[in-house]
């Protein structure tokens, strides 16, 4: 029988703390950038210009239909060869995960905007608003209310996706856990603690999303 010994974990506590900060900072960066990309791409999906719609759809399908781990490795190793621009593992990770998340955010944005009755934008145009003003003042505020829960769910998934940057030697929580496991020869205890830390961070967020969904459902 395996003898568990969690006492060894305490000596690596600062590795976990530093790794958690990197994970949270990474998550903030890829969520903000992904939301910006997703909003832009989602609006392009609804453009009257076919080339813009095709471009946005091609981007979304490319990133949704290829594994994120493959994208990370490709951005870090292949992209510098093709462009001649060297990038750090952190930059490659942020770029890949932001574009990957942006593809999913894009579909959420497109669906949220499409769910608003067309009569509202037509009424805004009849009042003399431009299409941009109608989108900004009438459609988007209503669509955002419907988009918030799925956007938050996708952001939670993005936090979990940050664990994959450990393959590029980015010192996130999982990478620090791997280092501690190799040094201590106690992988079961180390990875159990890493899993608990992820759970402690993510579980309150899932509860928050559920509460928000119920509140929005009541307000509707």
TrEMBL record:
Top-level division of the source organism's lineage: Bacteria
TM segment ranges: 20-46, 190-210
NADP as UniProt keyword: no
Entry's Gene Ontology molecular function annotations: transmembrane transporter activity
Entry's localization field: Cell inner membrane; Cell membrane
Entry's Gene Ontology cellular component terms: ATP-binding cassette (ABC) transporter complex
Boundaries of every ABC transmembrane type-1 domain copy: 20-209
Pfam families, per database record: BPD_transp_1
Entry-linked InterPro entries: AA_ABC_transptr_permease_3TM, ArtM/GltK/GlnP/TcyL/YhdX-like, MetI-like, MetI-like_sf
One GO biological process term: amino acid transport
Bilayer disposition of the protein: Multi-pass membrane protein
UniProt entry keywords in alphabetical sequence: Amino-acid transport, Cell membrane, Membrane, Transmembrane, Transmembrane helix, Transport
NCBIfam families linked to this entry: HEQRo_perm_3TM
Family, per entry: Belongs to the binding-protein-dependent transport system permease family. HisMQ subfamily.
Chain's role: Part of the binding-protein-dependent transport system for glutamine; probably responsible for the translocation of the substrate across the membrane. Part of the ABC transporter complex GltIJKL involved in glutamate and aspartate uptake. Probably responsible for the translocation of the substrate across the membrane.
Subunit structure: The complex is composed of two ATP-binding proteins (GltL), two transmembrane proteins (GltJ and GltK) and a solute-binding protein (GltI).
Full protein name: Glutamate/aspartate import permease protein GltK
């Amino acid at each position: 029988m395996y003898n568990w010994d969690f006492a060894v974990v305490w000596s690596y506590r600062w590795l976990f703390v530093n790794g958690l900060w990197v994970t949270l900072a990474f998550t903030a960066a890829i969520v903000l950038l992904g939301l910006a990309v997703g909003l832009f791409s989602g609006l392009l999906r609804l453009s009257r210009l076919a080339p813009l719609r095709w471009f946005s759809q091609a981007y979304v399908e490319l990133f949704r239909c290829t594994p994120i781990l493959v994208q990370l490795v490709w951005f870090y190793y292949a992209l510098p060869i093709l462009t001649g621009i060297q990038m750090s593992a952190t930059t490659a990770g942020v770029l890949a995960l932001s574009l990957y998340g942006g593809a999913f955010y894009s579909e959420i944005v497109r669906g949220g905007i499409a769910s608003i009755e067309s009569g509202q934008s037509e009424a805004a145009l009849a009042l003399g608003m431009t299409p941009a003003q109608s989108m900004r003042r009438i459609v988007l505020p209503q669509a955002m209310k419907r988009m918030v829960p799925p956007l938050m769910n996708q952001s939670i998934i993005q936090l979990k996706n940050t664990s994959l940057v450990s393959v590029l030697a980015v010192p996130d929580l999982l990478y620090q856990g791997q280092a501690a496991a190799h040094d201590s020869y106690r992988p079961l205890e180390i990875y159990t603690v890493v899993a608990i830390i992820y759970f402690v961070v993510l579980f309150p967020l899932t509860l928050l999303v559920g509460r928000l969904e119920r509140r929005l459902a009541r307000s509707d």
